[in-house]
Amino acid sequence: MPTAMDREGGASSLGLIWFDHQGPKSPALRLQKLAADLGIMLPPLPQTAVELTSVDEAYSAVYLQLARKLSQNGARTLVTTIESLRQRAGNGDLDTMVAELTSPWPQFQNLRPVLSYYRELSRYEWPSLAPFEFRLGHRTAEIAKLRWMLTQLGDLKPRKTDSYRDAIYDPGLKLGLQHFQARHGLEQSGKLDPRTLAALNTSPGERLLQIQTNLWRALSLPVALPEAYIWINLPEFQLYALEQGQNVLQMRVIVGSESTPTPLLSTSLTHFTVNPEWRPPASIIYRELLPNNVRDPGLLARQGFALHSLSSDGVPSLALGRIAPEQLPTLLRQYRLVQAPGPANALGKLRFSIRNDEAIYLHDTPVKSLFSQTGRALSHGCIRLEDPKRLLAFLQSRAPDLDPKAISRALKLTEPRDFVLTTPIEVIVGYQTAWVSADGILQFREDIYGLDRQHSVLAEVEVVKRLSQGSAL
Known about the structure:
Low-confidence stretches: 1-13
InterPro entries: LD-transpeptidase_YkuD-like, LD_TPept_cat_dom, Peptidoglycan-bd-like, PGBD-like_sf, PGBDSf, Transpep_catalytic_dom
Largest sheet: 8 strands, mixed, barrel
Strand order of the largest sheet: 3-4-5-13-11-10-6-14
Protein name: L,D-transpeptidase family protein
Number of domains: 4
Distance between the termini: 32 Å
Keywords: Cell shape, Cell wall biogenesis/degradation, Peptidoglycan synthesis, Transferase
Radius of gyration: 28 Å
Family: Belongs to the YkuD family.
Mean pLDDT: 91
Structural class: alpha+beta
Number of strands: 16
Strand content: 15-25%
Helix content: 25-40%
Organism: Shewanella cyperi
């Protein structure tokens, strides 16, 4: 049967980009799948020549809209006009152009394949699990519902059994619930606590939108995948160091609270300081340090704080031992509050400096107990490291010009000392609430800063639509 293109004298006479006499070109199919994965639905394949022209234009419009959206952060240089699109298509570059809309990052590549299963799963009417307490051997209809949910989500292997046994809470079901809790960043209690219940009652349709939202976010990462870099995922409260795409270091971190969030950054680590001084910002001084010192006079002195002159004329620093708390606000017009290195120093033994305009850095901490908490959005914005010496060892392994003896000596002393990296290492402070871990397990985390709500896939699609309004092809 002749196609629409055959009847109308061929695709080339119609000035088509994405279709030929055989139908959609392979780049068109890849663009269609990419758009669908990002929540954008292209029109169905055409049946007539009129439809063919219209659909081809729709494909071009979606390509250009995506390219304009992804070019906004300056990280990519993409084709954003119909003239350039036609020129590159004429040169046979369509495959490359569609590939340029994707990302080499594992946060994108490994997450896309999950979408098909969640699309299928979202067709089910997802049950709502009621709060209840149970113990091993307990039998109830809610337990049967829990078993079905965990099986559908992949946390339990399917088994042949009867409805009576399905409703019994047994060791296998407990392990499945703990697996679910682990990949959602929850306490692995095997109990149906409120956070676990909320995660279980999140429907596959909602998870599908969450996955798509995170695909959009992954597209904002730098175009090139660095040979070595540090990746910090804020909702996961984890730091990774990677070389050639492989994790070589992982540790827990503490990140900014909801009221003082850690910003998303694409930057580099340039140097580190052994035995750093801490110069707290005014917000911390006036909201926390001074009020605490009023309630407990002498607290700042015991913690190693002193007043350093703001001028450079050699005015000596002032000890706080004999200064009344009510005098400090006046003195801070001429002096800066500085905490000396030592066991009480808020930055601990090591500070790692990254380029940014918000005074954010990675650092040690004297309060190690907080790393045992499941949720660790606790800081004023800086990133506290569970084991900074392991990060130091990673940097040393990549910087043979660093003097290990000098670093070792500095660690044994108390005076501040800076060490500069000849070749800075890239640092990405990211925000993924859905991703596939290195062991192939789909992970979800709570939206600690509300960014999924602010920049959902629905919002991203609306931005793409707005970018095309008033712009003719």
